[in-house]
User: What shape does this take?
Amino acid sequence: MTILKVSGLSKSFGGNDVIRGIDLDVAKGERIAVLGASGSGKSTLLRCLNFMEMPDAGTITLDGKVVGRREAELTLVRQRIGMVFQQFNLFPHMTALGNVMEGLRTVRRMNKADAQARAERELARVGLADKAAHYPAHLSGGQKQRVAIARALAMDPELLLFDEPTSALDPELVGEVLGVIRSLAEEGRTMLLVTHELGFAYHVATRVIFLADGTIHEQGTPDEVLKHPKKERTQAFLARHKEFSL
Amino acid sequence: MHQWDFASVLDNTDALAVGALGTLRIFAICLVAGLSFGLVVGLGRYSQRRVFYWPATAFVEFFRNTPVLVQIIWFYFALPILMPFSISPLAAASLGISLNSAAFSAEIYRGGIQSIDRGQWDGARALGMSFLQAMRRIILPQALKRMTPALTNRAIEIFKMSTLASAVAYVELLQQAKLIASLNFNPIEAYTAVAVIFFVFLWPLVQLTYVLERRLARDE
Assistant: This one.
């Protein structure tokens, strides 16, 4: 069952075409890893899907309904699509618990007791029940990103977008975040993940998309794209990534 | 050599107390009106929509580039000629000082809001917050913290500007000092007393801003 359908999506910034006519269907339960060189449009594609960036052309259909451009409609769509950022973007003036409760309280208008119970469950799920009262400044990068994941999960999104969730982390902290994302994958959550962690993409994704020049250059199963790429640019990209691996 | 005679001022403590109350009253009005209307104008200045941006910009430019004293006198003497009603000294002075403070604080608000990292907007919008929800819950609380020293400075300015209300005979400290000086022929003592009273009110407030600035710098 397709939950998100993208057709003819284009986006440019000041005359620079970053996304050029992308078509993409996302089925429920799919886990799509988006790969590509820097500047290939990975993040922009992700940010267009929940209208953090306004596409210049193309349509996005969510659950069979084409999404319009009215701000009120877009805020409703964003409530259904969770997003996790490279720089976490936690709210520094709120505790970990406050961060996770914020969407429930302000957007969903949930009462305080219910929101708190829900937020505590989400923090426990990412292994941070004991950090509920901590402010982001007193959390490690990996902990911050797990709070950010809990914050997105609290809204019960139909689709999760991860925009390079481990790229800002020290290497020894990457594992704890990937572990949380893998457990979400095992629950059967639908997700799109922009990443440079090829091994993780290989083991966790159900489909891999390789972007180049703002288009889908190659896509297929992880085995097809990562082990047996057909296109030259995909091969070159993977070769560069493997250059210094053990 | 001048013979200092503060006794003649102390004899009029009641009049000075009435003046001090008048000063505090106009200060409170202008502080609340100026800083809250300043927020509205500041949001307009921050807006990318022309219907908000241009009126806000015109307002800021006009009131930043005309003297408060001229505005107060204009509201008191000129406006009643144009309009079918007269206006009290308090209203005229409050209008002038509040609008001027709104113009200056609008720029503080705009700068403070702009200084917040774009990622904070991203985080808020990704949860499905509207512009106003994001502003109220995420952006302003952080921006206000950064703006506190600048806004406290504005408050101090407003306190001192209150003396301009004496130009339209509003009863505040300076106006009362004028009265005392003219009745007792002691302008030196009367005006010195007013300066001292202002200093006693403001000095602790200024010290408080230093403490605030240091504390905020430590938190960042």
Summary: Chain B has one domain: 7-219.
